[in-house]
Write a structure and sequence with these properties.
The protein is of the alpha/beta class. The chain has a single domain, classed as 3-Layer(aba) Sandwich (Rossmann fold). The termini are far apart. 46% of the residues are buried.
Length: 292
């Protein structure tokens, strides 16, 4: 018999973290890889941390950063809290910020960098406003202070419609036109697997409750650098939405990413990494490290 080859495992390690969020016990699924500066990664609405597979498999980044991604409660492999069946899920800014701070505290992270996309890009603005000193840098992907609903949220959770297929259909046009087919469809697949009503509940925060338009001028980038990266084909958080942020936040650095849409981290990882590396280099240089 021939000797079996070594299994081709990726460097990602996943575990379950038990912690309290707002006084309520939770069981969160967390993935990690790499070493160095902690980089906490926040997924988009209705999806989960699998979106960051491109970063988690980049050896150069893993040599300099400790990547950490968790599934929000109700998402991916994270469980909803006990008694979830008795309430409608609606994400709020307070619950989102409390979850992030609880994870940072539970893992003992020392001023991590936080990068979030879509709703994650929105909550980065909340962190900049309320907890800037807790972080060494914030990276907002597809960040806007507010998004007006351009579709009816009711279609996302009703008994005569397949919720997963509807979620996938609604996000399918948000990827850039040059996104590789396999990566685009894997992104859509993650949406098709979401729990009933979860995408709709996340969009409650994204389109209504999480509006920070009247507060963003108070963000102090001297306390914590803020980097904004938005895909040129994103029509949910448009390049103009992000340009407006950059105009109103003194010191914010902005880049519009050619060819990318609303899911840059998962729809075309190599193209996205070409834009992220200069930002990570800036962070490393501020810490006295070498460029990527």
């Amino acid at each position: 018999m021939s000797r079996p080859s070594q299994p081709d495992f990726e460097p990602i390690v996943g575990r379950y973290l038990r912690l309290a969020i707002g006084g309520t016990p939770h069981r969160l699924y967390v993935e990690e890889a790499g070493q160095g500066i902690p980089l906490l990664l926040l997924h988009t609405a209705g999806s989960d941390s699998r979106q960051y597979r491109g970063l988690f498999n980049d050896p150069e980044i893993l040599r300099r950063f400790r990547l950490i991604a968790f599934d929000l409660p109700w998402h991916g492999k994270s469980s909803p809290p006990a008694g979830w069946q008795n309430a409608e899920y609606k994400l709020t800014s307070r619950a989102y910020v409390d979850t992030i701070l609880a994870v940072v505290d539970a893992l003992g992270l020392d001023r991590p960098v936080v990068m979030g996309c879509s709703i994650g890009g929105r909550v980065v603005l909340h962190l900049a406003l309320e907890h800037a000193v807790c972080f060494r840098a914030l990276i907002g992907l597809e960040s806007g202070a507010h998004v007006e609903p351009y579709y009816s949220l009711d279609w996302l959770h009703r008994p005569d419609v397949h919720g997963g297929e509807m979620c996938g259909a609604m996000v399918s046009g948000l990827a850039g036109p040059t996104a590789p087919e396999a990566d685009k469809w894997e992104t859509i697949w993650h949406y098709m697997q979401g729990g009933p009503g979860i995408f709709k509940g996340d969009l409650h925060y994204y389109t209504s409750e999480g509006d920070v338009r009247d507060r963003i001028a108070a963000i102090d980038t001297a306390a914590c650098p803020l980097y904004l990266l938005t895909g040129e084909y994103d029509y949910s958080c448009t390049p103009d939405d992000t340009r407006d942020l950059a105009r109103r936040i003194r010191g914010a650095e902005m880049t519009i990413m050619d060819g990318l849409g609303h899911f840059p981290v998962s729809e075309d990882p190599p193209r996205f990494l070409s834009y992220l590396r200069p930002v990570l280099t800036r962070i490393l240089e501020k810490e006295g490290g070498r460029a990527l």
